[in-house]
# Entry
Amino acid sequence: MNWRNFQLGPAALVAAAFIGPGTVVTASLAGANFGYALLWALAFSVIATLILQEMAARLGVVTRQGLGEAIREQIQRPALRWAAMALVISAVVIGNSVYQGGNLSGASLGVEALIGSSASWLPLILGVLAAVLLWSGNYRLLERVLIGLVMLMSVAFIASFLLVQPDWTAFFRGLFIPSIPTGSLLTVIALIGTTVVPYNLFLHAASSAQKWRGAEDLPRARGDLVVSIPLGGLISIAIVSTAAAAFFGQAVQLEGAADLSASLRPVAGEGATWLMGIGLFAAGLSSSLTAPLASAYALSGILGYGGQLKSWPFRLTWLAIIGIGTLIASAGIRPVEVIMFAQVANGLLLPIMALFLLWACNQQRLGEHRNSLPQNVAAVAVVVVAIGLGLRSVGAALQWW
# Structure
């Protein structure tokens, strides 16, 4: 790759998407409960994400289509197409409507940590801010805002990690030597599941189709990928390690991201608390933009409306998601049943989308850019893991019901 032409782009949106408040909570609990032992799961997640997102980006760059359009065009049997549409709507659109409440709540908690008091009106203000940015219909503006938020998260979470003075020997052991301590299996699955998510496949393919001009831009798209995705993984690793250094083996109970921010004050001082608040705000706001954006790309594509940012079907989709999320966050509602339903749909959608991507990237229309044998072997391995994750996610939700 020619690094002189390097620029961050759609892959940075993917990084912004998978580092949300849910990831902060999951990573914090992983570090507090199991120390550095599960860092290898995040390293694996980064590799799996690189494999899937490279295929999604290549599909978008070469075909100039998003994943939703590709599904609509390539799946000819009506029954299969309707089943795919139902899964996408259930997992991406309905699911993100609920998760949006958590995104706005997380961003609000970050602001509250900075101002030192709670404010019930914050979710509404942040929801309006997200809507204004998306309403602009300016892809370049959205990209720059999200890249800025990723950079802000990187500085905040990595600086917090360095302030708590980690155990470097334990850090590298956990990163490179896989282990599953007693009681940690569900946490391993959660760490992987918060990084390898199906809606990012729609977001990456569609935004790549908008950003890049054609196959000649594949080197730039891949350069963006190999920088942005590992950077997102590094942020998750920093959060796990911060919680591990500060709380593992201590009599401190973390129940959420707000607890992490407040509990860091006696461990690493006021500066770490501020950094964690900034990071949580950036994580929540970035996901508050990418979740509605990905949903609009997915629904518009699969229904044949196209992915124009200023089209009314596109705008109505993300407006509905932001509106529902703002109501949930403002009212403090915890719609557990809907979240469980979305988890089931996501558990089914990820392996199906991974299989479809694998099939689509072996089609003749990609020409010389079809999957090579090593790419197929790597993709099959990730698909097998995706199926296992999907079955476990569905099983856990059904057991809860």
Notes: The chain has a mean pLDDT of 84.
